[in-house]
Amino acid sequence: MKLNLDITVPSKPEWVEAVMADFPSFLQDHADCERKASAMAMSFVAKFPDRTAIIPELIGIGIEELEHFQQVYLLMESRGIQLPASMGQDVYVTNLIKRCHSGREERFLDRLLIASVVETRGAERFRLVSEAQNEPELHRFYKILWASEAKHGHVFVKFALHYFDEKTVYDRLAWWVEQEGEVMDGLEIRSALH
Fold first, then answer.
1. Are 161 and 188 in contact (CB under 8 A)?
2. What gap in Å lies between CA 116 and CA 174, rounded to an integer?
3. Which end of the chain is less congested by CB atoms within 10 angstroms, N or C?
4. Rounded to whole angstroms, how far apart are CA atoms 158 and 113?
5. 109, 142 Cβ separation under 8 angstroms
6. Residue 1 reports pLDDT greater than 80
7. Can you give the residue ranges of every domain in the chain?
8. CB 99 within 8 A of CB 186
C-alpha cells in the first residue's frame, strides 16, 4: 500500500537558483518552517485529543521537527545569520488550508493530508537543495532532512488510514495533490522553502 502520492508539479530550476543565490534567507525561512512544523504536529494533539492512537507519534514528530529547528539554528549561528525578527505568513500553507472542508471529521482528514503533501514537497525541495550544494556538510544535512520529510509524508497518510477507509483517503489525497500543484504554480519564486 502506497502511503503518499507523488507531487504533480515539480519545483522549477529557477527556485533552486534563487535559493542558492541567497542561502542565508533560505536558512532563515527554513528555520521558521521547522518551528511551524513542530507546532502543527502539536496542534493535532491539542485539537484532537481523542485520537489517542496517533498522539504518541505526533509528539515524536513535534520533537523531531524542533530538533531540526535546532540544527538549522546552529548552522545559521555558525555562519553569523540571525533568526528573522518575526515569522512571516506561509502563503503556500495558508492557501492550502483555505481549501479545507469545515466539518470536524472532514477537516481532520484534510489537515492530515495537507501535512502529507507539505512534507512530500519539503522532501522534494530538500533533495534539490542537497544536490545543488558544493559544501559536503550542507549536502549531507539536506540529504538527511530530505529522507525525514519523505518519511513524515508517509506517516500522515498512515494516520488518515487509521481513521478513514482507503478509498476516502486516496480519493481525497489525489485531490490534495492536484490542489498543491495549483498552489505551488501560483507562488512567487524566492529564497524560501515554499
1. no
2. 11
3. N
4. 10
5. no
6. no
7. 13-186
8. no
Q: Given the C-alpha cell 489525497, which residue does it identify? A: 173
- Point out the least confidently predicted range of 2-16, 72-86, 102-116, 122-136: 2-16
Alpha helices (H) along 55-103: 55-78, 91-97
Query: What whole-number distance in Å separates Cα of residue 74 and Cα of residue 77?
Result: 5
Give pLDDT, residue 3: 63
pLDDT, position 89: 85
Q: What is the pTM of this model?
A: 0.94
- Determine if residue 24 is left, alpha or beta; phi over 0 gives left, psi from -120 to 50 gives alpha, anything else beta: alpha
Helix axes 136-163, 55-78, angle to 10 degrees: 160
Q: Fill in the amino acid letter for 44.
A: F
Q: Could you name the CATH architecture of 13-186?
A: Up-down Bundle (1.20)
Cell of 181: 500543484
